[in-house]
Design brief:
Structural class of chain B: alpha/beta
Number of strands of chain A: 23
CATH class of the largest domain in chain A: Alpha Beta
CATH topology of the largest domain in chain B: Rossmann fold
Strand content of chain A: 15-25%
Mean pLDDT of chain A: 94
Largest sheet of chain B: 8 strands, mixed
CATH architecture of the largest domain in chain A: 3-Layer(aba) Sandwich
Radius of gyration of chain B: 23 Å
Distance between the termini of chain B: 32 Å
Number of domains of chain B: 2
Structural class of chain A: alpha/beta
Strand content of chain B: 15-25%
Order of helices and strands of chain B: HHEEHEHHEHEHEHHEEEEHEHHE
Mean pLDDT of chain B: 96
Number of strands of chain B: 12
Low-confidence stretches of chain B: none
Oligomer: heterodimer
Distance between the termini of chain A: 52 Å
CATH class of the largest domain in chain B: Alpha Beta
CATH architecture of the largest domain in chain B: 3-Layer(aba) Sandwich
Shape of chain A: globular
Largest interface: A-B, 80 and 71 residues
C-alpha cells in the first residue's frame, strides 16, 4: 500500500520510559538527526534524580522531548505531537501533554499486570476509549525485535537491550529520516564491540522496516529544511557550550585554563567535558568539596590562569565566602551556576531561575560582582566568552547564570570561526618600578595583575581590607569607605562596556515583555505569536543583570506596563522595581519546568485585552496594583 | 599551548640573585605578641630562603586565618592571605597551575585541623608538592583563647571554663593516616633544628607536613615546655634522625626499643641493654612512622620530634597532571580548536 506524505512546519516528539530504558540516548540521536536533516531543533531532557529508580514506577520515568521544525524554534515545544512510551508508567506521566489527535507509540509489553499496577492503572489504558482521541500504535516490541533478528545470530539478551533503538527506528520512518547519522554514531560509540554494533544497527533498521511494512503506519511526515544562515552546525547543550567557551576564551586570552569543580547536578557535564580536554593543555581539579573547588581556582587565578569554578545552587551557597575573597583580592574568576530548583537540595534535576538574588547579593559585606545570564544553550558559548572578557579586563569574579534547562537542552549551534573571534587582553602589570597591587587602570578601575614569577613585583594580597594603591593592610575607616566605593564603581562602570538593551516591536507604548536567562525562548515565541495576531507589544531580553544595560531605565519608563516572566517568585522584578521605581507585573512559575510559550501568550493576552486599565499600573495608583499573573 | 604566562614568568632573573635573610624581610612591622612562637618560625624561614637558590619571585607563601595567617605579610615574596581553613586548596590550585613555583603554606591547629580539616586530609593523599607549616599552639589565639582540635581533654579555656571535653587530634598521625608522604614535627625553641626541618620539607618532592609546636604566651603559655625547653626536652622528647638509633635523655642514656609493635624505653646503662637493642630510625618505613606517631600522647614515652616519615616513591600530583597532558598530546597531537568545536558530528547548511 502506498504511504501518504504530509508536510508539517514543526513537530514535538517525546520519548518516555524507565530511567534505564535509554530514552535520553535515543532522544539525543533523534534530535541530532533532525539537525543533520536541516531542521531547527530544541530539546528538553526530563529525568528523575534517582539513577535507576525501580522499574515501572511513576517516579522512575525518564523523558526526552525534541521540538523541531522548518520554522524558527526557540522552545522545546508546548504540546507533544508524538509520544513514545515504553511502559504504562511513562504513558500515565506524559499522556496529558499530548495534543489531541497526536500519535502515541507504546510497547504493549510494558502494559502487563505488574506494570499497570505500578502505574496505578485500574484498567489497561490501551483498551480505554480515553485514548481514542489519539492515534495509538501498540507494538509488541520484544516480539517484533526477535522477528527482525531472525537471520542474525546474537544473544537474545543483547537483542533485547536494543528495544529503544528499535523504537527510534520506528520514529525515523515516521519522519522519513536518514539512518546514517545514527549508524555512524553507533559505529563510533561501540568501536571494537562488533556484536553490539551489529545489534544496534540491525535494531534501528528493524524499527524502520517494521513501520514500513506495517499497514497501520499509513502516513509519513516531512519537515522541510529551515532557513538557517549557511555555515557548519552542530547540536550543543548549554553545558557543552560553556566548556567550549572556556577553552576558546583561554586561547583568546593566551592564558592557561584551570577548572576547580565538585560534581553536582546539573552542572557536572561541564566538569566531564573539561576533564577530557587534556590535549588542549587544560588543567582541572576535581576538588574534595565546593569550597576547595573555588579556592583552588582562586589560587590558580593568583598564578595567572583563566580560572573557573562550576556549580549549582547548593554549591554556590558553599562558595559564597570564597567569592567574597575573589572580590576583595580583585582576581579574575568565572563562576558558572547552572541553576536548579531550590531551596536546599530542592529538585536537583529540575530547572529554576531562583539563584538571581544570591548571585547579586549572596555575600557578606558590600560585595558587588558582575552577573551575566545565557539566553539559550548555544548562547552559553557567547556568554562564557563575555564572562572571561569582563573578568580579565576588570579584574573581578564574574557570575554566569545558566540553568538545568538550557544546561542540558540542546539546539543547533552555528560553529564560529575561532580566528575571527576577538582577542581578550588580560590586565598584566609591566613596570616593577611603579607596580603596587592596588594601583588601578584609570579607565576600567581594574587593578593590575602581577603573578608569581614576575620579578620585582612581589606582593601580598588577601581578604583583609587594603590601602588604596599600595595594597598594605589597612583598618583606616576613610580608606575602607573609599575601597568599598571603588569596588562598586568598578562593577557599575562595566555598563559602559556592554550592549544596550534592544527592544523589538514598538519602541515605546503599552506593554513591554522583558525576559532574562532561559525564559528567552518561550517569551520570544509568545511575543511573536501575539504580534502575528495583531497585538501591539514589545519585547526585550536581558543577558546582563549586573550591571544592567545603561538604557534599561529609559526603556522601562517608555512603557505603561512591564511584564517579567521568571522561573522564581519575582527576583528580577524586585531588582528592577527597587532600582528604577517602576512597577512590574510578574509571571512566575516554580514547577521545575521551563515556561511554555502558550502559558505566557495566554496570560499576556489577558493583560492586552484589559483595555480599560491600559495605563495600569498608572503613576497615581502605582502602589495599589494587584500584582502578578 | 604556549601562553602569555610562559613569557611573563620564565624571563631570566635579572641582577643579583644571591640573597641574605634581609632580602626576605618586607618593610612592615611584625605585629605578633612579644615572645610569640610564630616569630621563632619566621626567622628560620627568612634565613632558609637564601639557601634554596630560588629567585624570590618564584616563592609563594599562602595562609589561612588565625595568628599564623599573618605570616605571608612578613615574607618579602609573593604571598596570599586566604580565608579560614582554605590555605591548602588555594595553594593546591596555584601549584597545579604553576608547578614552577615553590609553594609554602602557613596554617594553625584551628585553621588546619578544624575548619580546614577536610582540605588537610585530601591535600595529604593528593600529594601536591608544597610545604605546610602548621603552627600548633593548642588554642585559638586570634579569637582570644578558645580550645582547639589539638587542646587536651580538660584544658581550661574561655570556651571550656570547666575543662574541654574533646580528645585532641594527633596531627602527625592524622597526616600519616591520610597518606602524607613527608611528616615531621619541630618546635619554636630550637631555630637551627627547625630551619633544618624546613629545608628537608622543601627538598621533599610532594606534600610535606611540618607540625611546629609554637608557644602562645597569652592564651596557653608553657603548653610545650616539657618537650621544648632546653632543660627538660632531652628527657621528654626524642629527636628522630634517619639511620640513627633513637637515643634520648640528657646523658643520652635512654633508648627506644620495640617490644612487638609496642615501643618501650630502655636504660642503656642497665646491664643487659646495649645500643644494639635500640630501634634505628628509618624515615622510609611507613609502618614504623605510625608506631612513632602514636608515641605522641603515650605516657612514659618521649615525644617524637624530627622527621617521622619521608617517602619518595610517590610522584606529586601536579607532575601527574603534566604527564597526563603530555601523554595526550603525544597520543593525539596538540588540540585543534576547530575540530574541538566541530564535535563528534556536525552538518553543513
Amino acid at each position: 500500500m502506498d504511504k501518504l506524505i504530509e508536510h508539517l512546519e514543526e513537530v514535538t516528539v517525546r520519548f518516555a520510559g524507565d530511567s534505564g530504558d535509554g530514552m535520553q540516548l535515543i532522544g539525543t540521536q533523534f534530535s541530532d538527526t533532525a539537525g543533520f536533516a536541516g531542521n531547527e531543533v530544541n530539546t528538553f531532557p526530563d529525568y528523575p534524580s534517582e539513577i535507576r529508580a525501580p522499574e515501572g514506577t511513576l517516579y522512575g520515568v525518564s523523558a526526552f522531548q525534541v521540538h523541531f521544525g522548518s520554522k524558527h524554534i526557540t522552545t522545546s515545544g508546548d504540546f507533544v505531537d508524538v509520544l513514545v512510551a515504553m511502559n504504562a508508567a511513562s504513558l500515565k506521566v506524559n499522556l496529558a501533554q499530548v495534543r489531541e489527535g497526536g500519535i502515541v507509540i507504546v510497547d504493549r509489553e510494558g502494559f502487563d499486570d505488574r506494570n499497570l499496577k505500578l502505574a496505578g492503572y485500574a484498567r489497561n489504558p490501551l483498551e480505554d476509549v480515553g485514548l481514542a482521541k489519539n492515534h495509538v500504535f501498540a507494538i509488541d516490541m520484544s516480539k517484533e525485535l526477535k522477528k527482525a533478528f531472525i537471520e542474525v545470530e546474537l544473544p537474545s539478551k543483547l537483542i533485547q537491550k536494543t528495544r529503544n533503538i528499535f523504537a527510534l527506528g520506528i520514529t525515523y520512518w515516521l519522519f522519513n529520516r536518514p539512518l546514517d547519522p545514527t549508524v555512524s554514531w553507533i559505529n563510533k560509540k561501540f568501536k571494537g564491540k562488533e556484536d553490539v554494533i551489529l545489534a544496534n544497527a540491525h535494531a534501528l533498521q528493524g524499527g524502520w522496516n517494521f513501520a514500513e511494512k506495517n499497514p497501520d503506519f499509513r502516513k509519513q511526515y516531512v519537515i522541510d529544511k529551515s532557513k538557517l544562515p549557511p555555515g557548519k552546525y552542530r547540536s550543543i547543550t548549554g553545558n557543552q557550550a560553556v566548556a567550549l567557551g572556556l577553552v576558546v576564551a583561554a586561547t583568546k586570552a593566551h592564558l592557561p585554563l584551570f577548572l576547580g569543580s565538585y560534581p553536582i547536578t546539573p552542572a557536572t557535564d561541564i566538569l566531564h567535558a573539561i576533564s577530557g580536554y587534556k590535549q588542549y593543555g587544560v588543567k582541572h581539579l576535581q576538588a574534595e568539596d565546593e569550597i576547595a573547588a573555588i579556592t583552588s581556582a582562586i589560587g590558580a587565578a593568583f598564578g595567572g590562569s583563566l580560572a573557573v569554578t562550576t556549580t549549582s545552587g547548593p554549591g554556590l551557597s558553599l562558595k559564597t565566602e570564597a567569592i567574597g575573597l575573589a572580590i576583595m583580592t580583585e582576581l579574575p574568576l568565572i563562576i558558572v551556576d547552572v541553576q536548579r530548583a531550590g531551596p536546599s537540595t530542592g529538585l536537583p534535576t529540575k530547572t529554576e531561575q531562583s539563584d538571581l538574588m544570591q548571585a547579586m547579593y549572596g555575600r557578606h559585606g558590600e560585595a558587588p560582582m558582575p552577573v551575566l545570564a545565557a539566553a539559550s544553550s548555544a548562547d552559553c558559548f557567547n556568554m562564557t566568552l563575555e564572562a572571561a572578557r569582563i573578568a580579565l579586563k576588570y579584574m573581578t569574579p564574574v557570575m554566569l547564570l545558566t540553568d538545568g534547562y538550557i544546561g542540558q537542552a540542546s539546539e543547533p549551534w552555528r560553529i564560529p570561526d575561532v580566528d575571527k573571534l576577538p582577542d581578550i587582553a588580560p590586565n598584566f602589570a609591566a613596570d616593577p618600578s611603579t607596580f603596587k597591587p592596588y594601583v588601578r587602570n584609570p579607565e576600567t578601575l581594574g587593578r593590575l595583575w602581577a603573578i608569581p614569577g614576575m620579578q620585582g613585583m612581589e606582593h601580598r594580597i588577601g581578604g583583609l581590607e587594603k590601602e588604596d594603591g599600595s595594597g598594605v593592610v589597612s583598618h583606616d575607616p576613610i580608606n575602607h569607605q573609599k575601597m568599598v566605593e571603588l569596588r562598586q564603581k568598578k562593577v557599575d562602570g562595566i555598563a559602559n562596556d556592554i550592549p544596550d538593551l534592544e527592544v523589538m516591536g514598538e519602541p515605546k507604548g503599552d506593554l513591554l515583555l522583558l525576559s532574562w536567562g532561559s525564559t528567552y525562548g518561550a517569551a520570544k515565541n509568545a511575543y511573536e505569536n501575539l504580534r502575528s495576531q495583531g497585538h501591539k507589544l514589545s519585547f526585550g531580553h536581558l543577558r546582563y543583570l549586573n550591571p544592567f544595560p545603561k538604557n534599561l531605565g529609559d526603556v522601562l519608563h517608555r512603557f505603561d506596563r512591564v511584564v517579567i516572566p521568571e522561573l522564581n517568585l519575582g527576583q528580577l522584578k524586585n531588582l528592577i522595581q527597587a532600582k528604577y521605581l517602576k512597577r512590574v507585573i510578574g509571571i512566575n512559575k516554580v514547577q521545575g519546568k521551563p515556561f511554555k510559550a502558550i502559558e505566557l501568550e495566554e496570560k499576556i493576552s489577558v493583560l492586552l485585552t484589559m483595555t480599560n486599565i491600559k495605563k495600569w499600573p498608572s503613576k497615581k495608583s502605582n502602589l495599589d496594583i494587584p500584582v502578578d499573573l | 599551548m604556549n601562553t602569555i604566562i610562559d613569557d611573563l614568568v620564565n624571563k631570566p632573573h635579572s641582577g643579583e640573585s644571591h640573597y641574605t635573610s634581609k632580602d626576605f624581610k618586607p618593610d612592615v612591622d611584625v605585629r605578633w605578641c612579644a615572645g610569640c612562637g610564630a616569630i621563632s618560625v619566621l626567622s628560620p624561614a627568612q634565613r632558609l630562603m637564601p639557601e634554596l637558590g630560588i629567585p624570590k619571585e618564584k616563592i609563594v607563601f599562602i595562609s589561612g586565618i588565625g595568628c599564623s595567617g599573618r605570616f605571608p605579610y612578613y615574607m618579602d615574596t609573593y604571598g596570599f592571605h586566604g580565608i579560614h581553613g582554605r590555605a591548602l586548596p588555594i595553594a593546591s590550585g596555584l601549584k597545579i597551575a604553576r608547578p614552577d613555583l615553590s609553594v609554602w603554606v602557613v596554617t594553625g591547629d584551628g585553621d588546619n585541623m578544624s575548619i580546614g580539616g577536610n582540605h588537610f586530609i585530601h591535600a595529604c593523599r593528593r600529594n601536591v608538592d608544597m610545604n605546610v607549616l602548621m603552627f600548633n599552639n593548642e588554642v585559638y589565639s586570634l579569637t582570644k583563647g578558645q580550645y582547639s582540635p589539638t587542646s587536651h581533654r580538660g584544658q581550661i579555656t574561655k570556651s571550656s571554663p570547666l575543662g574541654a571535653l574533646d580528645d585532641p587530634f594527633n596531627p602527625v598521625a592524622l597526616a600519616l593516616g591520610a597518606s602524607a608522604t613527608f611528616v615531621a614535627r619541630g618546635h619554636d625553641k630550637d631555630r637551627q633544628q627547625l630551619q633544618n626541618l624546613l629545608l628537608q620539607a622543601h627538598q621533599h618532592k610532594g606534600f610535606s607536613f611540618v607540625e611546629i609546636y609554637t608557644n602562645c604566651r597569652i592564651f596557653n603559655d608553657g603548653a610545650f615546655d616539657l618537650y621544648t625547653n632546653a632543660e627538660t626536652r632531652e628527657e621528654h622528647s626524642v629527636w628522630l634522625e634517619h639511620g640513627k638509633p633513637m637515643v634520648f635523655g640528657k646523658q643520652k642514656n635512654k633508648g627506644i626499643k620495640l617490644d612487638g609493635f609496642r615501643p618501650t624505653v630502655i636504660e642503656l646503662t642497665e646491664r643487659g641493654n646495649s645500643i644494639n637493642d635500640v630501634l634505628v630510625h628509618d624515615q622510609h618505613d611507613s609502618t614504623l612512622a605510625f608506631i612513632l606517631a602514636n608515641m605522641t600522647y603515650a605516657e612514659n614515652l618521649p615525644r617524637p620530634m624530627g622527621v617521622l616519615q619521608s617517602l619518595t616513591n610517590r610522584s606529586s600530583y601536579e607532575e601527574r597532571v603534566v604527564e597526563q597532558i603530555q601523554h595526550e598530546v603525544e597520543a593525539k597531537g596538540i588540540g585543534n580548536l576547530e575540530s574541538l568545536l566541530l564535535g563528534a558530528s556536525h552538518w553543513e547548511i
